[in-house]
Amino acid sequence: xxxxxxxxxxxxxxxxxxxxxxxALFYGGMVSVKSSTNMMMMTIxxxxxxxxxxxxxxxxxxxxxxxxxxxGSPTEFAGLTDLLEAQTTVSGLPISLFAVFQALFAGxxxxxxxxxxxxxMKFGAWMGFATLWAVLVYFPVAHWVFAxxxxxxxxxxxxxxxxxxxxxxxxxxxxxxxxxGASALAVAIVLGKxxxxxxxxxxxxxxxxxxxxxxxxxxxxxxxxxxxxxxxxSAAMVMVTTFVATxxxxxxxxxxxxxxxxxxxxxxxxSGAITGLVAITPACGAVTPIGAIFVGGIxxxxxxxxxxxxxxxxxxxxxxxxxxxxxxxxxGTLLIGFFASxxxxxxxxxxxxxxxxxxxxxxxxAAGAVMVYSFAVAFAIAFAIKKTVGIxxxxxxxxxxxxxxxHRESSYDMQPV
Length: 417
Description:
Layout: H1 3-30, H2 36-63, E1 66-67, E2 71-72, H3 81-85, E3 89-90, E4 93-94, H4 95-113, H5 123-146, H6 160-165, H7 173-191, H8 206-225, H9 233-261, H10 266-283, H11 289-306, H12 309-313, H13 321-339, H14 358-388, H15 395-400, H16 402-407
Antiparallel strand pairs: 1-2, 3-4
Helix pairs in contact: 1-2, 1-4, 1-8, 2-4, 2-5, 4-5, 4-7, 5-7, 5-14, 7-13, 7-14, 8-9, 8-10, 9-10, 9-11, 10-11, 10-13, 11-13, 13-14
């Protein structure tokens, strides 16, 4: 066991955990004051349910010996007890820390989807969806992307994207962002439009959203840097590319926002930061710092327009999960095929560095496969919930507000002292 790596990963786990309130604040500030508590509860609730599933069989489905590259054995490491007692290590890291690190990835990914259903989805239906989606979508897709051969045991066989296709995804552009974004689109379609769709939705608390974005930015160093699984050069390089891509995305977003709308907003700056973080997630170990500027800048400029797709096509993605996470994840994943440099930790060259189109087509196949699978299964899950227990609150409940109706509490005490 490497004590330096262990200490580093302990810090990364703390950083990842701070992303939970970060996401809750980021989303909670952008919705109506009548549903802010509910929005935050959706983040907390989904992380909680995924954490339990992870120990029971989720870790095993992701990192257990593969069934044809599609999903790991759900029983091989079920409960984690035997694995922990064997004092197994991964890259010099105790398996217990590796398991918690990956569990937080899973919980945060599920929580990302909640931004597409703000103000109108039953909390119970959300919890049911989060449970089924984790089992049927996240665990298999994470196995495709993160389960390298021999990662937990010497003879374990992993997922098809990581081992057979050879696509690069350092920290989850496909498994996290494309996965969540495509599923958010599916659920938004099944759920239907809110009463406020097409009207100007004002965030009830912009400082909360900016604070949440700041916490997410800080936690993202753990998200990306911790994926190196060692306190060394790779983690350091990844943190540099993560930082500079985010800066470039903020500048690109607010510049385009100024040109397009005539003003610069706090929500725009926060959204630009998240877009840069999303786009660099798969590419952080593949591109140079200059390449990272291009990745962040391109994503920031395009996603400003991508968030407007919901108005054009008529789906109600309340907090722009599709425009930021799906589109940003696609951009970051595909740009690896152009800007990857073999001098970086992933050790591959993209088109602009003499690598031809070999890496580009691999990236496209990985992105397309994840997008199609996650959309189809998420749509089926949401549709089944709609036809059985019901998925949406009533118009009266939407008017009154989810906080008051379902949680019996409000975000702020508005009564005079």
